[in-house]
């Protein structure tokens, strides 16, 4: 597992600032959202509660409400301005419940969610055991978790260009599919299926990519990032290095997307503990015993 840590407050600040501009730059997010929604075809029951974690401006939440009109759809996001922006995707006919909360601390009862959905949010959580442990806690037995997240090859060109300028981390790091899959199994999720897709977007110049990242709020939130301003010399060196990567006159940017789904475990199914053993939990009401009188 990677030992990097994210600055949670910086993540929240970046996405809060991007609430108004997000949907002007979310072309890739929409494309990945469509693929993530396709995974919901595996869920053949009629859900009563659907939760969208990292809902952002609520476009995906509205699509979930359209797909499941009778379900209670809850849009969860860490950034309150994003949830305020999501209001425009909610209506009296298809209302969304908007909740400001972290993915690792969902204000939901145990085993209360039929479908747990997340599109390109989990990469902003660095504690995978806590994240997937929370997914297991809120999912009903047999409930579906479907999500997408960025993999380590994301923005590899930008990362390489910055490496030509200095040795500071300027691009957020993301976890490998195998780390994600191991964390899902350790948490007790059943039958996880993971796939990797790569998208390449192109730009007329590197600054267009940087503007897009700012507009999405997807800027560096690594704890180890340099806190001061980047000098003009290093910045120009990075731009020059990126310019050398042009293909057919365009600047490429790779996005590696890990897409996955899994199922909520039955009550009492063991999960792997931190020390390598297995832990099983039961409701006290489900335990049968006898007593002497």
UniProtKB/TrEMBL annotation:
It comes from the Bacteria. It catalyses: malonyl-[ACP] + S-adenosyl-L-methionine = malonyl-[ACP] methyl ester + S-adenosyl-L-homocysteine. GO terms for molecular function: malonyl-CoA methyltransferase activity. Its EC number is 2.1.1.197. Keywords: Biotin biosynthesis, Methyltransferase, S-adenosyl-L-methionine, Transferase. It holds the Pfam family Methyltransf_11. Residues 51-147 form the Methyltransferase type domain. One of its GO terms (biological process) is methylation. It is an enzyme of class 2 (transferase). SUPFAM superfamilies: S-adenosyl-L-methionine-dependent methyltransferases. InterPro entries: BioC, Malonyl-ACP_OMT, Methyltransf_11, SAM-dependent_MTases_sf. Pathway: Cofactor biosynthesis; biotin biosynthesis. Belongs to the methyltransferase superfamily. HAMAP family: BioC. PANTHER family: ARGININE-HYDROXYLASE NDUFAF5, MITOCHONDRIAL. Converts the free carboxyl group of a malonyl-thioester to its methyl ester by transfer of a methyl group from S-adenosyl-L-methionine (SAM). It allows to synthesize pimeloyl-ACP via the fatty acid synthetic pathway. This is Malonyl-[acyl-carrier protein] O-methyltransferase. It comes from Rhodanobacter umsongensis.
């Amino acid at each position: 597992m990677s030992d990097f840590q994210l600055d949670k407050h910086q993540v929240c600040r970046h996405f809060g600032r991007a609430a108004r501009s997000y949907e002007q730059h979310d072309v890739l997010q929409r494309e990945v959202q469509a693929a993530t929604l396709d995974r919901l075809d595996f869920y053949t029951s009629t859900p009563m509660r659907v939760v969208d974690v990292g809902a952002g401006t609520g476009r995906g939440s509205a699509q979930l409400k359209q797909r499941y009109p009778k379900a209670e759809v809850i849009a969860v996001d860490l950034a309150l301005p994003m949830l305020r922006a999501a209001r425009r995707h909610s209506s009296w006919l298809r209302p969304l419940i908007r909740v400001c909360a972290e993915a690792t601390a969902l204000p939901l009862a145990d085993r209360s969610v039929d479908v747990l959905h997340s599109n390109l949010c989990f990469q902003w959580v660095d504690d995978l055991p806590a994240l997937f442990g929370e997914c297991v806690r809120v999912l009903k037995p047999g409930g579906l978790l479907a999500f997408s997240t960025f993999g380590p090859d994301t923005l590899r060109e930008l990362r390489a260009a910055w490496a030509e300028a200095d040795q500071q981390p300027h691009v957020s790091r993301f976890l490998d599919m195998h780390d994600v899959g191991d964390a899902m199994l350790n948490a007790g999720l059943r039958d996880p299926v993971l796939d990797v897709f790569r998208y390449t977007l192109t730009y007329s110049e590197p600054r267009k990519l940087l503007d897009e990242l700012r507009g999405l709020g997807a800027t560096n939130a690594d704890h180890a990032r340099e806190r001061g301003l980047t000098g003009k010399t290093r910045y120009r060196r990075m731009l020059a290095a990126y310019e050398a990567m042009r293909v057919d006159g365009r600047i490429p940017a790779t996005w590696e997307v890990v897409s996955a789904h899994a199922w909520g475990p039955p009550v009492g199914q063991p999960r792997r503990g931190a020390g390598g053993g297995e832990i099983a939990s039961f409701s006290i009401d489900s335990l049968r015993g006898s007593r002497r009188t």
